[in-house]
């Protein structure tokens, strides 16, 4: 089996599940272009812990971890099976890399996982394993998590980081929309894209100091940290391909990145 790429997905608002728009098109196209995974591991911006946790439920629940949305959104389910055996192996790999990990046997699938996966694999017939991120430990730690799990790609496991390339919820109600983007979106998105194209991992890991408008694009960085899991999982010579999925609400850039190991 050819190695699968690793992915970074901007999952956007929970409403993406009901109004997928361009994001839905891009995710569907991406899934169709990939070999069918044996299993999917998702490091989600909505699964936060002080140390790595791995979801080990045999049948993870669909978690509606949001409020104030239309009733139809709470009726959606993503009944994919889990993979407790794979979860245990992930924890073991992380332990071996010096990243003490534990299996959480009750963890379900938050909207950072099930919203994009419903658009990629609507049949919900591929096992899914959630993976936490550690917001207090920063990009280099998340990159190390990805590196520790990179070998799973050779086994047909699709490794995904799910977050948002820009994520400043303070901008709700600020007057931004499809015709009036927040001024920091394009400079920040462009800088990230340039560093990924150059393979400048050191600059990316230091994005809080080097990227334009970093603190406006990410007042807290839990939604960008999954990018570093995906980048680490692609290896030291990762080739990045950007899939432009537009900008939601004028301030949530929906970029998707595919990382392949360069020849």
From TrEMBL:
Keywords: Dioxygenase, Metal-binding, Oxidoreductase, Zinc. Pfam families: LigB. It comes from the Bacteria. One of its GO terms (molecular function) is dioxygenase activity. Its cofactor is Zn(2+). Residues 28-237 form the Extradiol ring-cleavage dioxygenase class III enzyme subunit B domain. Gene3D superfamilies: LigB-like (3.40.830.10). InterPro entries: Extradiol_dOase_DODA, Xdiol_dOase_suB. Belongs to the DODA-type extradiol aromatic ring-opening dioxygenase family. This is Dioxygenase. The lineage of its organism: Bacteria, Pseudomonadati, Pseudomonadota, Gammaproteobacteria, Lysobacterales.
């Amino acid at each position: 089996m050819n190695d699968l790429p690793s992915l970074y997905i901007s999952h956007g608002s929970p409403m993406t599940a009901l109004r997928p728009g361009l994001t839905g098109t891009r995710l569907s196209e991406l899934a169709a272009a990939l070999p069918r995974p044996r299993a999917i591991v998702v490091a989600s911006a909505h699964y936060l812990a002080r140390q790595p946790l791995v979801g080990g439920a045999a049948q993870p629940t669909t978690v509606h971890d949001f409020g104030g949305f239309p009733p139809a959104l709470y009726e959606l389910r993503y009944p994919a099976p889990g993979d407790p055996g794979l979860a245990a192996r992930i924890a073991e790999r992380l332990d071996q890399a010096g990243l003490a990990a534990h299996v959480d046997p009750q963890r379900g699938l938050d909207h950072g996982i099930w919203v994009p996966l419903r658009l990629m694999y609507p049949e919900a017939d591929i096992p899914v394993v959630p993976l936490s991120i550690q917001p207090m430990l920063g990009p280099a730690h998340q990159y190390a998590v990805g590196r520790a799990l990179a070998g799973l790609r050779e086994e047909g496991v699709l490794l995904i980081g799910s977050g948002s390339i820009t994520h400043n919820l303070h901008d709700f109600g600020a007057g931004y929309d499809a015709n009036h983007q927040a001024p920091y979106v394009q400079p920040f998105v462009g800088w990230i894209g340039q560093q990924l194209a150059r393979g400048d991992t050191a600059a990316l890991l230091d994005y809080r100091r080097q990227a334009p408008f970093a603190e406006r694009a990410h007042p807290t960085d839990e939604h960008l940290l999954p990018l570093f899991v995906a980048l680490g999982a692609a290896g030291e010579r990762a080739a990045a391909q950007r899939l432009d999925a537009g900008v939601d609400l004028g301030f949530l850039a929906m970029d998707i990145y595919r990382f392949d190991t360069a020849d």
